[in-house]
Amino acid sequence: MNSSISQIVPLALGEHSYDISVGFGLRSELADILAPWNQGQQWVVLTQRAIYDLYKPVIDQLKSAGYRIDTIVVPGDESAKNIRHAEDVWTQMVQLGCDRSSILLALGGGVVGDLGGFVAATYMRGIPFIQVPTTLLAMIDSAIGGKTAVNLAAGKNLVGAIYQPKAVLVDPGFLQTLPRRNVISSLAEAIKYGFIRDRSIFDTIEKRFDDLVSLNDQALLSEIIAKSCKIKAEIVSNDQFENGERRLLNYGHTIGHAFETIQEYGGLYHGEAVLYGMKCANFISHKKGLISDELFHRAQAVLHRFELPELGQLAPERVLEVVSHDKKNINGKLNFILIDDIGNGLVSTDVSEDDIVESLQAVTTTQTRT
Ligand SMILES: NC(=O)c1ccc[n+]([C@@H]2O[C@H](COP(=O)([O-])OP(=O)(O)OC[C@H]3O[C@@H](n4cnc5c(N)ncnc54)[C@H](O)[C@@H]3O)[C@@H](O)[C@H]2O)c1
Fold first, then answer.
1. CA angle, residues 363, 151, 250, in degrees to nearest 5
2. DSSP at 179
């Protein structure tokens, strides 16, 4: 194990198994860490301009160590997750001489990881790829589990593949340059694990919210990241193709995705949309008597600590329309994730349009104390 790696979380998937390695400063040892995969082939780093400008030395270090490596830059926002950009990247890879042995290294947040994974899954019918996540959301969620995608106007992530990386290399040191808003929105996915699986994550966020957001406490940050990675790895290894348990990871996402789609991915960050979605899901869980008044108010109180932009007016019929197209619907039945305790998620097919509309009203009229 390289000296900077403090934890290794295995993700067991038979021949597609891989490790999630976590360590502050890991990026300065990338040349060594990647050496087992380097056979002199062409490598491509997929990234965005802001990340390239901040972390060019990471790529230069690989060049100095003898890697044949070039960089492809895509737009710095969600618009990069588009089939036209995928085509641009495929074309540039052909021009760089990439063949089936080439390796794509996705250096960025969920946008780069999702697009990079999709490009790797499809270029010459699939080439290896490695995730080097640079946002908290990517470190604890999107880089793990092999979901890759591009968006359509009709909805997010509607075209994609399940395609696992060869490794996920997490250096929480990247977070120092991440804007506060992104850190806060990324924590949405950590608290989601708290709601659906591990109450201790919820408790930690409840007690140490400010320390987490300020990124000052390395041990605390490592603990939350490693716990989150473990939960994601366990769930994916039990249910790679989302026929059962993996659906729990959609807590807050059904309505959250609708918000993102309606705002055309422009207004809200993914995590912010999910935070609103979790407020709605908590509301419905409470309305159905699954959680007590006390748990409901405690859960909402923690969610209210996350600074969120105003949602504005959303037409409920538009939200219902997008929700009805959700990929997780089976035979027209909505699969909605609720909780019956903090730390225990469940799949419900018993959430009606009225439940959703009522939760939207509760969350959007007060936008605070629901
Ligand atoms: N595949 C999955 O399982 C999965 C799960 C959750 C979310 N997602 C997807 O992830 C995407 C959101 O990802 P995200 O929240 O990481 O946002 P993002 O990838 O859009 O990154 C946010 C911004 O931060 C910049 N950035 C990234 N790292 C930085 C750093 N270290 N320092 C400074 N700036 C940095 C990026 O260039 C970008 O402008 C959405 O498209 C969502 O659908 C996928």
1. 45
2. -
Burial class (CB in 10 A: 0-12, 13-18, 19+), 94: exposed
Decide if 90 is inside a domain.
yes
Q: Ligand 1 pocket: which of 47, 79, 111, 168 to mutate (most atoms <8 Å of CB)?
A: 111
Name the residue with tokens 């629901």. 370
Active site residue 260: no
Q: Which residues contact 336 (CB under 8 A, 6 or more apart)?
A: 254, 281, 284, 347, 348, 349, 350, 351
250 is catalytic: yes
- The rounded Å distance from CA 243 to ligand 1 centre is 26
243 is a catalytic site residue: no
310 and 204 housed in the same domain? yes
* Phi, psi torsion values for 264, nearest 5 degrees: 50, 40
Q: Amino acid identity, residue 75?
A: P
Q: Do 314 and 259 form a contact (C-beta atoms < 8 A)?
A: yes
CB atoms within 10 A of CB 1: 11
pTM given for the model: 0.94
Residue 222 lies inside a defined structural domain of this protein: no
- What distance in angstroms lies between residue 288's CA and the mean position of ligand 1's atoms? 34
pLDDT tens, position by position, 145-183: 999 999 988 778 889 999 999 999 999 999 999 999 999
Given a contact cutoff of 8 angstroms between Cβ atoms, the answer to whether 233 and 144 are in contact is yes
Host H or E run for residue 159? strand 155-162
Span 13-68, pLDDT tens digits: 999 999 999 999 999 999 999 999 999 999 999 999 999 999 999 999 999 999 99
Contacts of 101 (CB under 8 A, 6+ apart): 39, 41, 127
Q: Which of 275, 309, 310 is nearest to 187 (CA)?
A: 275
How many distinct structural domains can be found in the chain? 2
For residue 140, the domain's CATH number is: 3.40.50.1970
